[in-house]
Each structure stands twice: as structure tokens, then as C-alpha cells.
Amino acid sequence: MMADELQYIKLYGRIFLSMDIHALTGLRIGGKPTSLQIGGLENVVLRDPLTQRPYIPGSSLRGKMRSQWEKATNAPQNFFIRRGNPIVRIHTLKDAPLNTDAVCRIFGTTGDDAVPNPTRLIIHDTFLSDDSAKALNESGVTDQPYTETKWEASIDRITSAAVPRQMERVPAGAVFEQCKLIYSVFGNRQNNLQPEAPLDDIEWFFDLITMLQLVEDDYLGGSGSRGYGQIAFKKLRLGVRLMTHDANGITYSPLQQTEEYNDLATFSAAIPELKPIIRQQFG
User: How far apart are CA 213 and CA 232, in angstroms?
Assistant: First the structure.
């Protein structure tokens, strides 16, 4: 593809997936200490500055989904975010055809890539539910507002000397409500060629469900190898909004939603029925 060739992209609509995130074990997504007072916590969680409630940034869930998907698809780590110490690499498209790259066709490419592609996936921040906030405030077991302090120690294998540290985390049982994944269904064309049908984009959407299952089986946030961050996705609901072009102009339809599915396993089992419904809505 020549750099000076005209490129077009058409938005056919969007697929929405909403769900709650349940913390099955203590959840820790780290923030920055607000003070260095003696005896203060160093390893704090991220909090909403207005309510002081812990929340899950969309970037944390999106990054975890991408990381798991890169591993699952054996994607080469070919782009340096940082070349110093430590080295940080991720996968990017380079010169491969877009439709063959299971990662970048969903997560997009950087401005440096030879094959331009916008991201199809947006994930909003997800906030602690009012019910969970109330329960944590009234429980009497939290050390900080809405969180617990867990003591850990690194042990010298020979002398048994211990180096203790405090870790702040959201207690098991907390619910983060109405996580929203928004997936754009595009069609692309070059010069005067007709836009491609969005069927591939619709098919790729369902890769997100596999990614969510990979996250459930792994962990979210920090210290997962020590038992933190096991989560479950609950109350899943799929929705569609269509973009139509006709003599009356451009119309963006109201959100049409499916029934609610109790958990990810139930939702996954319904995918064979949902796929043709979604395809039919996009024509």
C-alpha cells in the first residue's frame, strides 16, 4: 500500500458489552502515595479523587486483555516501548496484512506502523458499586476507607530474617459495577473501491470473550502470583447501535440490548445463537 493512496473508513455501528466485575480475592491496582508520612502506606491502591473509592481503570483491563491475547496468539514482541533498563516490548503490526493479525485488528496500531488501523475497542473506567461501598464502610473490618491493609514479608532463605511491608487492597467480595466495553464495527476502502462488508469485524468482536475468559483464569492488577486479583465477570449484556446513511442523512440508532447473562460461562454458551443475530442487525 502506498502512503499517498487515499484511505476511507466507514463506521457501521458499535457493539456494546456491559458487565459487573466481582473481586473473588483481594484486588490491588496500584496508585501513587499522596504523602510520605511516617507509618503511612507506601503501596496504595488507585482511587477516584472525587469519592476516594477504589476503581478499575479501563486501561488496566484493556492492557491485561491485550497481554493475554498476545500470549495466546504467540504474537511477536516486536515494538520497543522502552529500550533501557528494564526493556519493555509489545506486539505491533509492522508489515503484515491487518486481517491476519489477531491483536492489531482489534487493538489498533501506532502512528509509526506501515499499515494504519484505528482501535476497535474502548473500555471505560469501572467504579465500586454503591452497595459494596456501603457494605465496606459498615463492615468495621477495613483499615482505610473501602480497603484493607495486608502485611507481607520477604524472608531470607538462610537467616530467616524478614522484611515486612504493607499492601493496600480492595477486599474480596467487592463489586465494580457496569464495566463497559465498546467495539466499533468498521469497513475500509481504498480509493474508489466499495467498502468491505463488516462481517470480519463482527467475527473479531467475539475474540473479546476469549480474552475475558483468559483474564478470569489469570488475574487483574498486581501480585497475582500471591493470590491477589482473581475476578469474575457477572451480569453480562450485549447491545448494538447501528449507523445508517440514507436520503434523510445519518442516523445513529437507539441501543438494542439482549437479555442479561449471569456469568461469562453462560454468555459464552450463548455465542452460537448471538452471532447470527448480530450479523443480521448489521445487514
Answer: 9
Rounded CA-CA distance 149/23 in Å is 16
What would the pLDDT profile of 143-169 be if each residue is shown by its tens digit? 888 988 887 777 878 887 777 778 888
What DSSP state is assigned to residue 253? P
**Amino acid making up residue 239:** G
The domain segmentation of the chain, as residue ranges, is 7-32+50-144+171-281
Beta bridge partners of 243: 252
Q: Is the dihedral of CA 197, 119, 90, 230 positive or negative?
A: negative
Q: Are 243 and 252 in contact (CB under 8 A)?
A: yes
Q: Is 105 helix (H, G, I), strand (E, B) or coil?
A: helix
- How many residues does the structure list for the chain? 283
Residue 228, C-alpha cell as written in the block: 491477589
User: Cβ neighbours of residue 80 under 8 Å, at least 6 residues apart?
Assistant: 87, 88, 89
Over residues 78-111, the pLDDT tens digits come to 877 878 778 888 888 776 667 778 998 899 887 6
C-alpha span between 137 and 143 (Å, rounded): 10
CB contact burial 122-131 (16+ within 10 A = b; e otherwise): ebbbbbbbee
Read off the pTM: 0.87
Q: How many CA atoms lie within 13 A of 62 on its CB side?
A: 19
* Count of alpha carbons within 13 angstroms of residue 210, beta-carbon side: 15
Name 170's Cβ contacts closer than 8 Å, sequence gap at least 6: 23, 26, 27, 28, 45, 54, 128, 146, 147, 148
Please give the Cα distance from 213 to 202 (Å, whole number): 19
CA 133, CA 255: separation in Å to the nearest integer?
A: 29
